[in-house]
Amino acid sequence: MTKTFDVMQANYIEPEVVPELKQLFLNKLELGQYDSLTSLEDFAHVLGQDLRAVTGDNHLSLYTVNPDEEITHILTHKEGKLTNNY
Q: I need a labelling partner for 54 at 20 to 30 A (CA). Which of 15, 18, 62, 75 fits?
């Protein structure tokens, strides 16, 4: 999860909010608020919802990648979506 925030810090339109977001989500993780999630896709979906709720940015999404793929802001799946999306 911390790599996600590294990518956000480097690419998000409001990078100054990223350290606070990262700490908020690490706290939620430590408190077990994501323990009931059973898959990486579910985790990405819920974390994405939480990110949108906290930032108010409805364009913000979180997707999963294969373990051998680099985490990036560039979408390589879902044809028809923007492929260079922040």
A: 75
How far from chain centre, in Å, is Cα 65?
11
Angle at CA of residue 63, ends 59 and 67, nearest 5°: 155
Burial call 44-78: b when 16+ CB within 10 Å, e when fewer: bbbbeebbeeebeeeebebeeeeeeeeeeeeeeee
Q: What is the average pLDDT score of the chain?
A: 81
Cβ–Cβ under 8 Å, residues 34 and 47: yes
**18-60 pLDDT, tens per residue?**
999 999 999 999 999 999 999 888 888 898 899 899 899 988 8
The confidence band for 74, taking pLDDT boundaries of 50, 70 and 90, is low
Hey, what are 38's tokens? 């059973």
What residue segments make up the domains of the chain, in order of their start?
Answer: 1-86
